[in-house]
Design goal:
The complex is a heterodimer. Chain A is α/β, with parallel strands linked by helices. Chain A contains 16 helices and 18 strands. Chain A has three domains: 6-163 and 237-256, Aconitase, domain 3 (2-Layer Sandwich); 166-235 and 266-283, Aconitase, Domain 2 (3-Layer(aba) Sandwich); 304-454, 2-Layer Sandwich (Aconitase, domain 3). Helices cover 32% and strands 16% of the residues of chain A. In chain A, a hairpin with a 5-residue loop joins strand 1 (14-17) and strand 2 (23-26). Chain A is globular and about 55 Å long. Chain B is an alpha/beta fold. Chain B is 33% helix and 17% strand. The termini of chain B are far apart. Chain B contains eight helices and seven strands, in the order βααβαβαβαβββααα. Chain B has one domain: Alpha-Beta Barrel (Aconitase, domain 4), CATH 3.20.19.10. Chain B has a seven-stranded mixed beta sheet. In chain B, strand 3 (98-101), helix 4 (106-113) and strand 4 (118-121) form a beta-alpha-beta unit. Classes of the chains: A alpha/beta, B alpha/beta. The interface between A and B is large, with 70 and 54 residues.
């Protein structure tokens, strides 16, 4: 029997297997940010350990940083201390760090790929559940806890039970106005928020193959929102064209040699998956979420569904609708929008800014909407400026901020006030995610742009 | 932190909500600390406290009858969302030693195990009956025996076995963690690197 993409990458990194226990997995690339690492470094100090392979870890502060005045000291002393702790730890343990105002700084899931630090066939971890983003390159990439961060720092390995495999095929052509984010939100709604727990997903099918790398990253990024440990896509010419010439990718003849190996990673024709699901791309329309987990989503023209029939599910559903102030049977179209957030490791890449600009060009931001446009990295921001997208945005009444995770999780000052409704291109609509009491509707960059211009939830195709 | 787990008999806090995500267990704005301690004060912060900072009398954790309970019972898909280990630290720091649910999110389940909090996966029927028992009598106790991998609803006597791999079982009962294991096997890692090159 043939092997899946996932099995090929995973199996090549197994150092040992514990009988009736986890496997010891070697990690090629480790990313660190400021929030989930200080306790891991403290653990190393307590045990008197060094970092085992410092060249395999790269640090970039992103979660807890302001998105303006990054050249000045951070006002909040607690946030400042967390950033300074990462800088000090990187120095003490000999790790590469791209700090604030460094031209390479950005959200770790944005800056890593754009610098060629994420490569096909690699194992990759970070103390962040959206590490699944890097699966877009055919890497086995997944989020870990801080104890596991400490394991990787100390030994370049972690102990993990091997997940099951699932293939999700999206076949056919997307309809106009439908983005990669809509594909992901559609899949998550079909699978439910816990439906892929225990699985590692491979995305395949003609609609997936047709996506560029930014779009593939958006799809893989959201794998965790249906419980999957990770999601990946077989590397192909789209992948290789993206990687060629990137700063830390292999160069010249070495790159060509690597491509030959990477081409062998695709799932074999006779590979078997533990589960397989197929969707039709033509069934997908622009999506919005109505509830308090990313699985609670609908097509933008559809009404909010009725509560499920089982008692426990009903109670959670009713609680979610009460929080969101939405009603079953009514669509979200026309609901007043207070905030719009374009950014995050889900939708903070150049493609997302191009899409947003394509809608707002020649229009004006609605005066009642506060919009935060936050590039995922300095590199994305530079590209926005090089392409003249910044001028389109300025003319439409928007301003660009400095890179970071920002309002996705509102650890920094970018918080949505209680009761206000935000249309957000980020990844989670959990209660209070964007600030205590904030109400979040997840959507793609086009729906976000239409909301920012019209001040109400609007179908961008209208 | 490395508190050995053998047999636990305790009352339970019933949190009958599905898909409890780690943002509810510990909201992001409390993740700015650089130590592992003190997160229990903010466990379920935005459900547990009113915007004024006063305890929310309607939230189950604030009910005096459940004070001192060492077991949390929650609806399915507990711990979904973020990988933040702060959620497991908050649960442990508050005083819970075990969480019972019919379904756990992967990363959070690992994080609990790595902090010597035992995630106990039970059948939906067992879970529903346990919620009913606690509702009928809030002093209902469960007994969790790691050696025999059984959990018992002491109100009804219903018992179920739960799954845990023998490696993690030994870690919990002996007070060992994964880093201890990996460091003891460092020569294997170097051999793997050599063989690969």
């Amino acid at each position: 029997m043939g092997k899946t993409l996932f099995d090929k990458v995973w199996d090549a990194h197994v150092v040992s297997a514990i009988a009736d226990g986890p496997q010891q997995l070697y990690i090629d690339r480790h990313y660190c940010h400021e929030v989930t690492t200080p306790q891991a470094f403290e653990g190393l100090r307590r045990r008197g350990l060094k970092v085992f392979r410092p060249e395999r870890t790269v640090c970039s502060p992103d979660h807890n940083i302001p998105t303006e005045h990054q050249d000045q000291p951070i006002e909040d002393p607690v946030s400042r201390n967390q950033i300074e702790t990462l800088v000090a730890n990187a120095k003490e343990f000999g790790l590469t760090l791209y700090g604030l105002m460094n031209p390479l700084n950005g959200i770790i899931h944005v800056m890593g790929p754009e610098n060629g630090l994420t490569l096909p066939g690699a194992t990759l971890v970070c103390g962040d559940s959206h590490t699944s983003t890097h699966g877009a390159f055919g890497a086995v990439a997944f989020g870990i806890g801080t104890s596991e961060v400490e394991m990787v720092l100390a030994t370049q390995c972690i102990l993990q039970p091997k997940p099951k495999t699932m293939r999700i095929n999206v076949e056919g052509e997307l309809r106009p106005g439908v983005t990669a984010k809509d594909i992901a939100l559609y899949i998550i709604a079909k699978m439910t928020t816990g439906g892929a727990t225990g699985y590692f997903v491979e995305y395949a099918g003609s609609a997936i193959r047709a996506l560029n790398m930014e779009e593939r990253m958006t799809v893989c990024n959201l794998s965790i929102e249906m419980g999957a440990r990770g999601g990946m896509i077989a590397p192909d010419d789209t992948t290789f064209d993206y990687l060629r010439g990137r700063r830390f990718a292999p160069q010249g003849a070495e790159f060509d040699k690597a491509v030959e190996e990477w081409r062998k990673l695709a799932s074999d024709a006779d590979a078997e998956f533990d589960a397989e699901v197929t969707f039709d791309a033509a069934d997908i329309e622009p999506r919005v979420t109505f509830g308090t987990n990313p699985g609670m989503g609908i097509g933008i023209s559809e009404p909010v569904p009725d509560a499920p029939s089982d008692a426990a599910g009903r109670e959670s559903f009713v609680k979610a609708l009460a929080y969101m102030q939405f009603e079953s049977g009514k669509p979200l179209l026309g609901n007043k929008v207070d905030y719009v957030f374009l950014g995050s490791c889900t939708n903070g890449r150049i493609e997302d800014f191009r899409a947003f600009a394509s809608y707002v060009k020649g229009r004006k931001k609605h005066p009642d909407v506060t919009a935060w446009l936050v590039p995922g990295s300095w590199s994305v921001r530079r590209q926005i400026e090089e392409e003249g997208i910044d001028k389109i945005l300025t003319e439409a009444g928007f301003e660009l901020r400095q890179p970071g995770c920002s309002a996705c999780l509102a650890m920094n000052p970018d918080k949505v006030p209680a009761g206000k409704l935000a249309v957000s291109t980020s990844n989670r609509n959990f209660e209070g995610r964007q600030g205590p009491g904030a109400r979040t509707v997840l959507a793609g960059p086009l729906v976000a742009a239409a909301a920012a211009i019209n001040g109400v939830i609007t179908d961008p195709r209208a | 932190m490395k508190e050995k787990f053998t047999v636990l008999t305790s009352t339970c806090v019933p949190l009958n909500v599905e898909n409890v995500d780690t943002d509810q267990i510990i909201p992001a704005r409390f993740l700015k600390s650089t130590s592992r301690e003190g997160f229990g004060d903010h466990l379920f912060n935005d459900w547990r406290f009113l915007p004024s900072g006063e305890p929310n009398p309607d939230f189950i954790l604030n009910s005096p009858v459940f004070k001192g309970a060492k077991v949390l019972v929650a609806g399915k898909n507990f711990g979904c969302g973020s990988s933040r280990e702060h959620a497991a630290w908050a649960i442990a720091d508050y005083g819970f030693r075990a969480v019972i649910s019919s379904f756990f999110a992967d990363i959070h389940r690992n994080n609990e195990l790595n902090n010597f909090v035992l995630p106990v996966t039970v059948s939906p029927d067992f879970l529903a009956e346990l919620f009913a028992s606690i509702e009928a009598d809030p002093t209902t106790e469960v007994t969790i025996d790691l050696a025999s991998q059984t959990v018992t609803n002491n109100a009804t006597g219903r018992a179920e076995t739960f799954a845990i791999n023998s490696y993690k079982k030994e870690c919990l009962s002996e007070g060992l963690d994964d880093i201890d294991y990996l460091i003891a096997h460092k020569s294997d890692i170097e051999a793997f690197e050599l063989a690969r090159n």
